[in-house]
Specification:
CATH topology of the largest domain: Cytochrome Bc1 Complex, Chain D, domain 2
CATH superfamily of the largest domain: Cytochrome c-like domain
Number of domains: 2
Helix content: 55-70%
CATH architecture of the largest domain: Orthogonal Bundle
Bound molecules: heme C
Number of helices: 5
Radius of gyration: 21 Å
Distance between the termini: 73 Å
Largest sheet: none
Amino acid sequence: MNQLFYYAGIKELIFPLFLILLIIAMAQCSNNNELKTGKEIYQAYCVNCHGVDGRLSTNAAIDLSRSRLPMDGRLEIIKNGRVTMMGFDGVISKDQIDSVARYTLELQK
Ligand code: HEC
C-alpha cells in the first residue's frame, strides 16, 4: 500500500516538474528579447570584458571610455567581432546591436 502511494507520487510529479522547467525555459527566452535598452544589453553581454564603465579591459578589450571610434565602426565590430571579441550578429538582434552601440558612445569620458 505504501509502495503504491509512493509510485503514484513520483508519476504525478513528473508532469508538473516538466511544466515548471518549460516555463523557466520560456521565461529565459523572453528575458533575452526583453533586453531593450542599450544599457541592459551592455550589462548582459559586454561587462565581462569591458566592465560597467567600459574600462575593465579583460582579454585586452579596448577601454570604451577612451575609444573615439565612430558609430559605423562600432556597429561593424559588435556585429562581426575582432580578435578576441566575438561577433554578436545572430546572438542579439540588429536593433539590439544598434542600441548597445549607441550606449557605448555614452561611456565616453
Ligand atoms: C570576450 C571579451 C569581449 C566581450 C564579451 C565584448 N568585447 Fe568588445 N572588445 C573586446 C576586445 C578584446 C576588443 C579589442 C579588439 C581589438 O584589439 O581589435 C574589443 C573592442 C570593442 C570595440 C572597439 C573599440 C575601438 O575603439 O576600436 C567596441 C565598440 C566594443 N568592443 C564593444 C563591445 C560591445 C558593445 C560588447 C557587447 C555587445 C562587447 N564589446 C563585448 C572584447 C570583448
